[in-house]
Design goal:
Elements: H1 7-19, H2 29-38, E1 44-45, E2 59-61, H3 70-76, H4 78-88, E3 91-94, E4 101-104, H5 107-114, E5 121-122, H6 127-130, H7 143-154, H8 159-179, H9 190-205, H10 215-231, H11 244-267, H12 274-280, H13 291-322, H14 324-337, H15 344-348, H16 351-363, E6 370-374, E7 378-380, E8 383-385, E9 390-393, H17 395-398, H18 443-460, E10 461-465, E11 474-475, E12 481-482, E13 488-492
Helix pairs in contact: 3-4, 8-9, 8-18, 9-13, 10-11, 11-12, 11-13, 13-14, 13-16, 13-18, 14-16
The structure holds protoporphyrin IX containing FE.
Length: about 500
């Protein structure tokens, strides 16, 4: 059974959720947030534009001493950023001791940053956020070097390769969902259970362990992986024992040692897991990854795939429970493809799922923002940005703009279907997978994984809210996470 349900661990988990003080759980902070949102902060100029350039200066503020706008941002997420957009326009600076940055808001600003022809925006903006833990992952590389690596990695995401991954994903998902998840239990928490499931899937699909084998090693690596992933959210952002950053670096070393050994094993082996595939893929010119490249790419890939898919599945589970008519539409499609082993062709028939997945990604965008850094002085929508400025685009906020989306707060998957196709109102109206050269390479993989898990779940259970009208609250300190773990009741269908 998942640790979140067995009594001791379940109680500990609940206690941790309630008692760990965060900007979302400390009583009274709701009122503080409201006051801060109403306040008019004194604005200053980030940098004077060069005389005669005709560019406008970027204005900004520092918020509260030391913590800047953390309270509003961590509690409100994209809703807070929407207020900033309404008040100050598409380009606004926020000073912060942790990461000062210019927000590039609205679809035009997103487009200018993602599709910038002059190559003014580098991935270096991500370095202070997750750099030491995901060093030289694909997303951290720039320009020519990035293209070189991306071309080789692309070979690990062809349709044939994806078919191999789907087979692995399905084996793990159908077993866990059917055998390990407790039915009729209002204590069941969907988010941690899905986190565990997607990690189980990763140990087979990414690391190449047969399901249920090498348990001790897999557990150790999964723990190291979880610590590494969490380290980017550390408040003390330097290596001081025993704090998060320090633990993250130690855990990264465990992952490096593990993957270094595994690369040696898999170089001469055959297999359809991602690690073995990366050991063999080459681009059209015969270029291949070095051992060190594979280690760095694997650590990043696992991170990139894990929380994003978990988040989407959790959101989808919630909305399907809250909107039973959509759950039924999805289940009818699932009935049509039945209980046999899944393949890509079968998953492609789940078209209602596509609408619901998109609507879930719109309403709770797993990676609501993307970070860049200017490599030279440049301009963004006529505003002057000096070299070295961190720039943050906010697809998660664009997904809530009433000028792009009809009734944006409403769960309405049909908006993605023709003839409405609201996502086509602007090239960057909908960008949960980013855009431009760094657009998510695992987009189709993620969609296939989500469909596989949800198909298995809906064939087995009816998803119900824990009480009528239940609405989750999210912590936006990193990726959006439901604060209470998202209780959902699984009612067996037969
Ligand atoms: C619903 C699931 C997912 C979402 C919402 C998502 C979102 C994103 C976004 C927004 C980016 C762009 C970041 C930027 O521009 O800085 C990105 C990049 C990336 N994603 Fe995903 N992702 C998902 C699943 C996956 C999966 C399953 C994998 C791997 C199997 C993956 C691997 C990557 C990689 C390697 C990059 C970097 C691409 C590059 O820099 O060229 N992602 N993802």
């Amino acid at each position: 059974m998942p640790t979140t349900i067995s009594t001791k661990d379940y109680l500990l988990d609940q206690a941790k959720r309630r008692l760990t003080p965060t900007l979302n759980t400390i009583p009274g902070l709701g009122l503080v947030e409201k006051r801060l949102n109403e306040r008019d902060w004194k604005q200053f100029v980030l940098a004077e534009p060069p005389p005669g350039s005709g560019l406008k200066p970027v204005l900004g503020d520092a918020g509260l001493p030391i913590i800047g706008h953390m309270i509003e941002a961590f509690r409100g997420g994209p809703d807070y950023v929407l207020q900033v957009y309404r008040k100050y326009g598409p380009v606004h600076y926020a000073y912060s001791p942790a990461l000062s940055s210019v927000s590039a808001l609205g679809p035009d600003a997103t487009q200018e940053v993602f599709s910038n022809k002059r190559k003014d925006y580098s991935q270096k903006g991500w370095h202070p956020v997750i750099g030491p833990f995901f060093n030289r992952g694909l997303m951290m590389l720039d320009f020519e070097e990035h293209m070189f690596h991306r071309r080789i990695m692309q070979e690990a995401f062809t349709r044939t390769r994806l078919s191999g991954y789907v087979e692995h994903i399905d084996k793990v998902a159908s077993k866990v969902v059917a055998e390990d998840w407790p039915a009729n239990d209002p204590r069941f928490l969907l988010h941690p259970a899905l986190k565990e499931l997607t990690l189980d899937i990763a140990s087979v699909v990414f690391m190449g362990h047969e399901p249920g084998t090498d348990k001790e090693l897999v557990t150790k690596i999964n723990e190291a992986f979880a610590i590494t992933t969490r380290a980017g959210g550390a408040i003390i952002r330097t290596s001081v024992p025993p704090f998060k950053w320090w633990r993250g670096l130690k855990a990264r070393k465990v992952l490096e040692d593990y993957f270094e050994k595994r690369v040696q094993e898999r170089r001469n082996a055959t297999g359809t897991d991602m690690l073995t595939v990366l050991c063999h893929t080459e681009d059209e010119d015969g270029n291949r990854f070095s051992d060190v490249d594979i280690v760095n790419h694997m650590i990043f890939l696992m991170m990139a795939a894990h929380d994003t898919s978990t988040s989407t599945l959790t959101t989808m589970g919630y909305y399907l429970a809250a909107y039973p008519e959509w759950q039924e539409r999805c289940r009818e499609e699932s009935e049509r493809i039945g209980d046999g082993p899944l393949d890509i062709e079968a998953l492609e028939k789940l078209e209602t799922y596509d609408l619901v997945i998109n609507e879930s990604l719109r309403l709770v965008t797993p990676l609501p923002f993307n970070v860049r850094q200017t490599v030279r002085d440049t301009d963004l929508l006529g505003y002057y940005l000096p070299a070295g400025t961190n720039v943050v685009t906010w697809p998660g906020m664009n997904h809530r703009l009433p000028e792009l989306w009809t009734d944006p707060e409403k769960f309405d998957p049909e908006r993605f279907a023709e003839p409405r196709a609201e996502h086509k109102r602007h090239r960057y109206a909908f960008a949960p997978f980013g855009g431009g050269a760094h657009k998510c390479i695992g987009m189709v993989f993620g969609q296939l994984e989500i469909k596989t898990v949800m198909h298995r779940l809906l064939r087995q259970y009816r998803l119900e809210l824990v009480r009528p009208g239940y609405k989750p609250r999210y912590d936006y300190a990193g990726m959006p996470v439901p604060i209470d773990g998202m209780p959902i009741v699984l009612r067996p269908l037969r």
